[in-house]
Design a protein that fits this description.
The chain contains five helices and four strands, in the order αββββαααα. The chain is mainly alpha-helical. Helix 1 packs antiparallel against helix 3 and helix 2 crosses helix 4. The model has no long low-confidence stretch (mean pLDDT 85).
Length: 194
Amino acid sequence: MNTRFTKILATLTFGLAMLWGLTFIGTTVSRLADDGAVCVQTGLWANATLEGGLPVGEGVDASSSEARLCQDDPSAAQRAADLGGQLPWMLFASLALLLFSRLLDAVVSEGPFTDKTARRLTVLGWVVTAGTPLAGLVAGGSHSWLTASMVPMETYGPEVSGPQVLILAGLAAVIMGKIMRQGVRMREDLEGTI
């Protein structure tokens, strides 16, 4: 096994986790200290016809896809919803990268087929499996609430945003961790028998 590459990857992953963590903290502090407008993009009026607003050719229909809404002098709840629309994915990425870095450290120190590595892979898998829909629900719900607070005819409803396919990757990591743990136990039993 190439431990030099794994060490470099573990260090790089740890550095990225710290970078995402600092970005999370910096974004939180700068947004809380900012007294400017809060903006949100919405597809509320998707495919709405634009009456004579764009110079298009004959026979071409123009429609809008996204609307950008901005609230000057937002309330504390609107500012919190703005943060809730962005920060959950930063926190999730930082935590997942940190756990992946710890997994790689275990591979470097003890090898790939050990109980410690299997446990860390399982933990990473569960965090990704549970964290993906949770981050998506917080971000989507915050976005939905912020939009509803700016458009009186829009109602708030729970939404899930982001790449939910990561749940499959998390479940695969959980399954692989369980398989590795079983393999470690079988090897230990075999070594005890001999």
